[in-house]
Predict the 3D structure of the following.
Amino acid sequence: MSAAEEVVTEGQAVEAVPKRAMTLGTGTSLAVLVLLLAVPLFAKNFVVFQMTMLLIYGVAVLALNILTGGSGQFSLGQSAFYAIGAYCAAILIEQYNVNYALTIPIAGVLCFAVGFLFGQPALRLSGIYLALATFALAVAMPQLLKLNFLEPWTGGVQGQVVDKPDAPFGLPIGQDTWLYYFTLVITVAIYILSVNLLRSRSGRAMMSIRDNEIAASAMGVNVALYKTLAFGVSAGITGVAGALGAIAVQFVAPDSYTYALAIQLFLGMVVGGVGWLPGSFIGAAFIIFVPNIAESVSKGLSGAVFGVLLFLVIFLVPHGARQIAIASQQLAARFKR
């Protein structure tokens, strides 16, 4: 079976990925985990912070990957759920003195509920119409956060500062290092849960809807339930990423969560490979580090340089990092023979 096959659904191409091609092998996964654990031992605080943001954005892109790669639904509104998670954590920490660790699951549950409810009317939409509806949500969210009656909680236009937590139990490590390891643990847990979800009965139901909605319905799959469930799970994971992002950046403001963030997350998914979960973190690395590279090439034309680099990536590897991974596996297999 090909690792990348095109399935045409309702006039649009949705990339279908076999279950076995969605993750890395056990050995490779353990090697990557060891490298991530070793990062704070050799890197400076700024690099550790960047790696923390890479993990956070990787979780947000992974959430979008579950929605698009798993159930075939397109969304350009993930920045709205990211903002809800971020503000949930900031308000609970700064105004209600809730422990930062407890704000993570609370933000996830809240965003799951919002995403599930939003998924109900979105059932009538598909393809570009669903993408436009979610895009409208992303455009509206920053303005909603600036409303006067919400200002006592959100801080209005000026935003709100969030205190960075110290390491617990008197551990002799800095705040950045502790937050990196805290984020890494949550990231690994979400990654494992996401893999198991897509391999479960619910995951198979979502992927059957992605491949052929009519056939899935004929086989007894509750299309409405699993579509809204995919939206809820994706929004919940994005909310967790938003809460972690607020704690890491130590600041929340409406203009930090515009539709530009939603487009960045969508771009990260495409670059990493739609439906390939490890690619979510490769896509996150792209949207974090490539703009810096483009600015180092030309500060005045950084946007143009970034556009050229993005064009080259899409032109050379249209299926993203997953295409490179598959080619590498095939090459290694030839050498073994």
